[in-house]
TrEMBL record:
Reaction equation(s) it catalyzes: D-ribulose 5-phosphate = D-xylulose 5-phosphate
Keywords: Carbohydrate metabolism, Cobalt, Isomerase, Manganese, Metal-binding, Zinc
Pathway: Carbohydrate degradation
NCBIfam families associated with the record: PRK05581.1-4, rpe
Cofactor: Zn(2+); Co(2+); Mn(2+); Fe(2+)
Binding site for a divalent metal cation: H37, D39, H70, D177
Alphabetical list of CDD domains matching this protein: RPE (cd00429)
Name used for this protein in its record: Ribulose-phosphate 3-epimerase
GO MF, any single term: metal ion binding
Cofactor remark from the record: Binds 1 divalent metal cation per subunit.
One GO term of the biological process aspect: pentose-phosphate shunt
Keyword Iron-sulfur: no
Function in brief: Catalyzes the reversible epimerization of D-ribulose 5-phosphate to D-xylulose 5-phosphate.
């Protein structure tokens, strides 16, 4: 995948109909999703449980764009190969999942997949300074991970600005996850984010039978983010 900093919308299928993932994925892609974001939770690192590698493998044939797998699990290292084999294009691990984020990112890279590092709202930007060269993406969490539909935590905006500076001209994406809406997207887009994850703000009001709403919701987020980029330029 070639690198650019254009705004990309990555719907989180955590907000999709859990009985109909194949059709949900096809619907969001047909409506303009750039990436598909898969939230993996273990009931230990975060207080919720979602998708094991067989589920991710089942999603794979439906994803024609880019499958972005966000691992909210600890330990993470024993599962990297399984999620790579399941067909992830990018695997993101949390710096807080421990114990050795550098080793974890090396292990992701060794699978041939792209590697992301994620920071919770309570973790400062500096925590990833020494692993940036192992990363294709930094994920700034703007909610505490575990659930969709939470309120955006504003300290992520300044953190995004800092990380954008730390990255300089290196080809590293900045992704925002949590509480992204047409109201909050402009704040992070102006601060330097390019990949916007959104669950509830994409799926609300729509369904596989009424997918135009997904398209409308994504266009509202994208237009707000791109507008803020123009204003900041
Ligand atoms: C939170 C997940 C998010 C979540 C976003 O733990 O990582 O991807 O689904 O949901 P919204 O957009 O509803 O905040
Ligand atoms: Zn996520």
């Amino acid at each position: 995948m070639s690198f650019d900093r254009s705004i990309k919308i990555a719907p989180s299928i955590l907000s999709a109909d859990f009985a109909d993932f194949g059709r949900e994925i096809r619907a969001i892609e047909a409506q303009g999703a750039d990436w598909v974001h898969v939230d993996v939770m273990d009931g230990h690192f975060v207080p919720n449980l979602t998708f094991g590698p067989p589920a991710v493998k089942a999603f794979r044939p439906h994803v024609k764009t880019f499958m972005d797998v966000h691992l909210m699990i600890a330990p993470v290292d024993p599962y990297i190969d399984a999620y790579a084999e399941a067909g992830a294009d990018m695997i993101t691990a949390h710096v807080e999942a421990g114990p050795h984020i550098h080793r974890t990112l090396q292990a992701i890279k060794a699978t041939g997949k792209m590697a992301g590092v994620s920071l919770n709202p309570g973790t400062p930007a500096e925590a990833i300074a020494d692993v940036l060269d192992l990363c294709d993406m930094v994920l700034v969490m703007t909610v505490n991970p575990g659930f969709g539909g939470q309120k955006f935590i504003h300290s992520g905006v300044e953190k995004t600005r800092k990380i954008r500076q730390m990255i300089g001209d290196r080809p590293i994406h900045i992704q925002i996850d949590g509480g992204v809406t047409p109201e909050t997207a402009p704040l992070v887009a102006a601060a330097g984010a390019d990949v916007l994850v959104a669950g509830s703000a994409v799926f609300k009001g729509g369904s596989v039978g009424n997918p135009d709403v997904y398209g409308k919701n994504m266009r509202a987020i994208r237009a707000a983010a791109e507008g803020a980029r123009k204003d900041a330029a």
